[in-house]
Amino acid sequence: MTDDERLARVALARVVEPGDEVGGRWVREFGAVEVARRLMTGGEQLPGVSSTRWEGLLGRAARARPEQDLAQARDAGVRYVCPGDGEWPAQLDDLGDGRPLGLWVRGRPSLRMWALRSVAVVGARACTAYGAHMAATLGAGLAERGWVVVSGGAYGVDGAAHRGVLGAGGATVAVLACGVDRPYPRGHTQLITRIAEQGLVVGELPPGDHPTPSRFILRNRVIAALTRGTVVIEAAYRSGALVTARAAQRLGRFTMGVPGPATSGLSAGVHELLRADAVLVSDAAEVVELIGDMGELAPDRRGPVLPRDLLEPGAARVLAALPGRGTASADRIARGAGTTEDDAVGRLYELRALGFVERHGDGWKLTRQAMISVHGGHGQC
Fold first, then answer.
1. pLDDT tens by residue, 291-333
2. Which of 27, 152, 172, 325 could form a disulfide with 379 if both were Cys (CB 3.0 to 4.6 A apart)?
3. Cis peptide before 313, with omega less than 30 degrees from 0?
4. Could you tell me where in the chain the CATH 3.40.50.450 domains are found?
5. Which residues, at least 6 apart from 331, have a Cβ–Cβ distance to it below 8 Å?
6. Strand ranges of the sheet holding 363-366, from the earlier edge strand across to the other edge
7. Which fold has domain 102-291?
8. CA distance 31 to 22
9. Model's pTM, two decimal places?
10. Using one digit for the tens of pLDDT, what is the confidence trace for 164-214?
């Protein structure tokens, strides 16, 4: 990446909106230096836009001050990373002509190295306590397993995920829809500053630039492309988090969803995603099993092992043949268990020694504890 090329891309960052595929095609076909020259000098119009649109771009270009932007970035501890640089994450190239012209990066680690083992965690801004809990827990769990958590630095799920990672001493990246030197939302200034100190804050917009609704949406494609997969925690039907998930699907990345209550409107979008082709996950181990390396498996999920689970099959059949309430004769129990009376009596004495049954005269009955264990305490199977 030559100095002229870098300077041209910085200038174009003031002119072309993030994700503009027409501008991306210009850069691919003519080169950033030539595109910047035509725009900043009012040269020959580039193809694919109307004369009105071209005039608007020229007006923006006239106010571009790339040297000033780079100097302002340096003063704020921000660097500009372009395609071709050693720190450029190659997976962003999957965006084609919609890939960023470059990324402004605040923080010490290498963006390329961190992106190699990263996962996006996104969701509702106005999340519930459940959503915040799941985001923080998931973020911490992923951090403990050596994964980088990428999110958007917003209120709600994003902030909870970042905090979970930071609390676990892990690595996190905030991708902003504004200049990385001016944290947004303002209420997260302290959080984003901490992320910059412990992790990375990145964005496409030049220093001091402000967010807009469209920039938030376009920012999400960077989150999706940068990571191996995207996890959505709480999202309504119309949600920016779902935009990120769908971008991840288009790019061939893994898409995951954390389920919530069926009665919650904030979980409706996630559930719709799961009904399509996303994978249901409930913790960090399940996320890593999907996106991690071979052998990074989640533990088997099973309920607690109960004493009756350890019984030999014959004894278990005899235990199951006892009624939930009252006593039964050995003969009746034997018929229920499909065995002889002598075998049933032997099993019953074995079960008595283990505390499952007790003898009452000529009959046998379950102990109180066994009644709860075997029949749920209601005399029903």
1. 987 456 656 666 676 777 788 899 999 999 999 888 999 999 9
2. 325
3. no
4. 102-291
5. 341
6. 328-329, 363-366, 357-360
7. Rossmann fold (3.40.50)
8. 13
9. 0.81
10. 999 999 999 999 999 999 888 999 999 999 999 999 999 999 999 999 999
